[in-house]
Predict the structure.
Amino acid sequence: MNLDLTKKYTYDDYYSWGEEVPRCELIDGIVYMSPAPLANHQRIIHRLNLIFGNYLDSKKSTCEVFPAPFDVRLNADGADDITVQPDLSIICDPRKVDTRGGIGAPDLIVEILSKSTMKHDTVLKHEKYREAGVLEYWIVNPFSMSVHVNTLVDEQYVVRSYADNMAIKSDVFADLMVKTNDIFPPGMKEETDDGA
């Protein structure tokens, strides 16, 4: 299926494409395509999925972890022109999940940077997550092996940065114990990065 990338679309358009248009997002009606992720990206997602999943299971929490691909219709106010696929979404309100994915702002979102999506994740999606009210947005940088935790305070993000086996502080999950080395596997090989 060939899309006109100069045209604006709605969620109904997006949903009708099904699997014909893999790995894309809709932001302000504009389609953004993403290449398949690389191995290190997937290693990091796997580790974070286990970390958050085990933590939430130990708490018998109602929160759920959803790794990509998982559609999040970011605007719960009825606007239908933003559907994103964060690398990891944590949603604590069961009413914010239906058979198609997430509805409204997840409590916590993680994006893992790649060279091809870095600006998209750190500028455009950063702003959309803030506007939607995502309480915490983790930006994981495999190149510098750092994690930048953006916490929503008075409708603005306050950022804390972590590297070199520092303990990461989460305001959403105050007793979560995770160090940067838990996220980045030892000996993680640098890859030629063309993926998401």
Q: What stands out?
A: The longest strand covers residues 146-153. The helical segments are 11-17, 39-58, 118-132, 180-183. The mean pLDDT is 90. The CA atoms of residues 114 and 196 lie 5 Å apart.
